[in-house]
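Typical record was shown:
=====
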Amino acid sequence: MLIVKKVLNNNVLVAEHPDYEEVVLIGKGLGFGKKTGESVAGEQAEKFFVLREAKDQEQYKRLLDYVDENFIGLMNDIIEIVEERFSNRLHEHIHITLTDHLFYAIKRVKQGLDIKNPFLSETELAYPKEFTVANELIDYLNKQLNIDIPPDEIGFVALHIHSALTRRSLQEVNRHTQLIAELIRVIEESLQIEMDRKNINYLRLVRHLHHAIERINKDQYTENQEPLKKVLQAEYPICYNLSWKLMKIMQQSIKKTIPEAEAVYLTMHLQRFSKQ
């Protein structure tokens, strides 16, 4: 048996759990007439998840003030799908962030307002599996709610999934996606080109940038490419100088020193686009 700690509404309550400390229990009529300190059978709950932080519990409680209970149930189904696809438990904060995000996204769709995502292609390239699952979730929502959520929304949902999987804040994940988009913009301006977003060289470049940022953040970047550096510096001076410009932008954004070896890798990618 669990002990009721806080009743959020007739169908949702917070209870003390012997293994997880505090859990959010969801079930039809579960919270009706219950008071703090009373016992509740865990098997009565249709679903449960853990919200360890007091501020998360308060945020979730506020969420229930404007999100109807049917949508809460739908979101729990969606989060369950994601955990099944990745065979992994998501950070519990996604119950708040993704529910809030999709509630307002769907509200905009119903009001006839457009949803635009300037970083859609970069997100798909950076997080392909998350993007695929997000696509599945949007299809699921469209069928369940009989609406037509635009494809741009897939990118936003993919970022929420990646954030919950990696335990990284959504702000940090967003910053990295925007950084890659900014680096692409600088490359196009500097080389006076417009990259084909479906070209294999573009795909390789974006994936390289994404993995480079990840490795630098984790301090896993140790290669030394000094001999190749001199060759590329002499052979492709425009691309080599541009690579250093990009590295300075990366350094300012992620606040970490970019290893000099990165100039070699970037130059090799950039020379494929250069007209020199």
